[in-house]
Amino acid sequence: MTRVAGEVERESANAGWAATPGLRLRPEQLPPDQLIEIYRLMYLSRRVDDREIMLKRQQKIFFQVSGAGHEALLVAAGMALKPGYDWFYPYYRDRALCLTLGNTPEEQFLQGVGAAADIASGGRQMPSHWSHPGLHIVSQSSSTTTQCLQAVGCAEAGRYFSRHPDAALVGEGDYRQFKNIDFQGDEVVYVSLGEGATSQGEFWESLNTASNARLPVLFVVEDNGYAISVPVEVNTPGGNISRLVANFPNFHFAEIDGTDPVASYFAFQEAVAWCRSGNGPALVHGHVVRPYSHSLSDDDRLYRSAAELEADNLRDPLPKFQMRLLREGILDEEGITRLEKQVDEEVRLAAERALRSPLPEVASIRQHVYSEDLDPTDAKIATKPALSADTQARTMADLINCGLSDELRRDPRIVIFGEDVADCSREEALEEGKVKGKGGVFKLTAGLQAEFGSDRVFNSPLAEANIVGRAIGYATRGMKPVVEIQFFDYIWPAMHQLRNELSLMRWRSNGTYSSPVVVRVPIGGYLTGGSIYHSQSGESLFTHTPGIRVVFPSNALDANGLLRTAIRCDDPVLFFEHKRLYRETYGRAAYPGAEFAIPFGKANIVRPGTDVTLVTYGAVVPRALQAAQKAQRENGIETEILDLRTLSPYDWEAIATSVRKTSRVIVAHEDMLSWGYGAEIAARIADDLFDDLDAPVKRVAAMDTFVAYQPILEDSILPQPEDLYRAIVGLHEY
Ligand SMILES: Cc1ncc(C[n+]2csc(CCOP(=O)(O)OP(=O)(O)O)c2C)c(N)n1
Ligand SMILES: [Mg+2]
């Protein structure tokens, strides 16, 4: 660990920063041209903010959050890094960074207007939500801190490509055709956040992995002393984040006066050099000010005293740096006025042009929810199983493991990580044959690290957001992470990344970034003792999330064929694997070869019938079969069972065709009844097929409770073959 520039001792955070005794400023100076350019960019950033504030007051734009007070730190950061070479995960205060990298004032005003030509999002995101593919600024959300883990994944991808340059080659017949791979070998990944946002767990998760893997991530904490109205000491014990992070190994740390662009520049140069030369990550903690309240919706006089605001004003980097230029004779009054006039004019013209720019077409709204390049429902994807001499019936667990290994062999961009997925993190033991290896708590990834190496199959920390957040960063760089969440019951820490990030990367960036990750998730109950926290379902939460494909196979062959389509897909896929089905006798199949694939959105008619349609998926499929056999045996009823196989998209054609034939339909699933997946299907059937129905649409599902441990309770909570049988007979008699 090193500690440089601006090492200070003090009790509380921002208050009195400027007066801090012992602040160590570097003796170096910068050439006059660069000092003038720094001032120009700082002033430009402030004036774009001022113009946006005016436009917002005139109701010509609809939101404003300023970067005022952060300019010195961010111009310095931008100058120490290379646009289009390094990668950037900024946050909403980073206007000055983006301007320094080459994002133009006009591009920034186009965001405010919500114009079609807005390069960041085409009018989908608020202004100051930066994104610029040419400059390597990656689309960000409004969620504080989610960018940190993505930046870590982005850095990992850069390292992976430099170690495995062949992986950058374009592959045939999958998502790789649509990804530009761009890596340098020594690129640095910048990520910034406010001091308040360091309270989020994901910040600490990202430090964990950046430190452990010695990744070239430059963390920048922009400490303006407030998170909206909450002062730093409420968010950060002791009021100083530098103190708290100081023991992370492999980091270079710098705590600096972020209102001084020269000191900041030298600090960033050192930090960037540390990262670029492969030593590990760096964290620059810059003390800045916030002269314009949190946003235009906030008035900081409600919670900050006049004296405090006045003290902050004295540290405003813009007048301070102007005074310095005058004092040091870099510019005189006239030079300052000339420069400022030029900038004012540039800003005025840029705003005028942006206001005249065409607005997005309403018809474009649905674009980029999913990939427009690769359609996973395309019937051409379908292949027949290529049977070999090996006709042994394999379990779903086996055929998922084979599918992963076939694809790892075929596509060098695939990495697999998650909790316990590796065979053995201490790989010497594996190499020396001292241990057999674990390969997942359900053994679905067994043998993969041993065969493909620890760069490609490895354990994550016990942190689900870490898994999904990093995977998004990897995928944004064109890789294919196939990650595992150990149990569906523990997917929730990753929910923020799944719902606000993974699903949205393509849509919110107007199709310029994407993150086609596969997340494999063991799910479901019927485990006899699985209890609450190993039995949950909840697939409808994800089918209710646009941008994600949701797959839920019921047998070994489908799992293999759908997994292949998921991995080759250009969209993010949640791949649900029912734990109870992993090793069932039901649904085993012979190995179908390394090219077997099933398109999404194609249901399987598990059992043809003429009297009642039963639409279902997952572990209810074998139970529905039992019920249908009994209904046929005892009541002469012919039930047609549709296994949807993929829940989003789902095969409406197959449902409609069957319901038109039988005029009676049950939608059944293992998840709770109310607001479950079946509600949507039942509502659509009632809407679109009303004239074809001879009876109400019925649903069979779990009780609206969680799953209990004691088997007699579990049995009554989850839908059983007997429940399905009764529903079939009841509906037939209706
Ligand atoms: C996960 C999340 N929670 C809450 C918010 C609402 N919010 C937006 S900015 C902000 C304060 C951020 O403070 P800080 O990290 O210090 O950054 P600053 O705005 O001061 O630069 C909050 C609470 C959010 N955007 N995301
Ligand atoms: Mg803050």
Question: How many distinct helices?
Answer: 25
Profile the largest sheet: 7 strands, mixed
Share in helix: 25-40%
Residue-averaged pLDDT, rounded? Answer: 95
Estimated share of beta-strand residues: 5-15%
Alpha-beta content class:
alpha/beta
Q: Which residues form runs of ≥5 with pLDDT under 50?
A: 1-25
Can you lay out the helices and strands and say which pair or pack?
Elements: E1 2-4, H1 32-57, H2 71-80, E2 87-89, H3 95-101, H4 105-113, H5 146-163, E3 189-194, H6 201-212, E4 217-223, E5 226-227, E6 230-231, H7 232-235, H8 241-245, E7 252-257, H9 261-276, E8 282-287, H10 306-314, H11 317-327, H12 333-356, H13 396-410, E9 414-418, H14 427-431, H15 448-452, E10 457-459, H16 464-476, E11 480-484, H17 495-502, H18 505-508, E12 518-523, H19 540-543, E13 549-551, H20 556-568, E14 573-578, E15 604-607, E16 612-616, H21 620-635, E17 639-643, E18 646-648, H22 652-662, E19 665-672, H23 677-688, E20 698-702, H24 711-717, H25 721-733
Helix pairs in contact: 1-2, 1-3, 1-4, 1-11, 1-12, 2-3, 2-9, 4-12, 5-6, 5-16, 13-20, 16-17, 21-25
Q: Could you please describe the fold and organization of this structure?
A:
This protein is of the alpha/beta class. The chain has 25 helices and 20 strands. It has a seven-stranded mixed beta sheet, sandwiched between helices. β3 (189-194), α6 (201-212) and β4 (217-223) form a beta-alpha-beta unit. Mean pLDDT is 95; it is low at 1-25. Thiamine diphosphate is lined by residues 93, 142-144, 193-197, 222, 224, 226-228, 294.
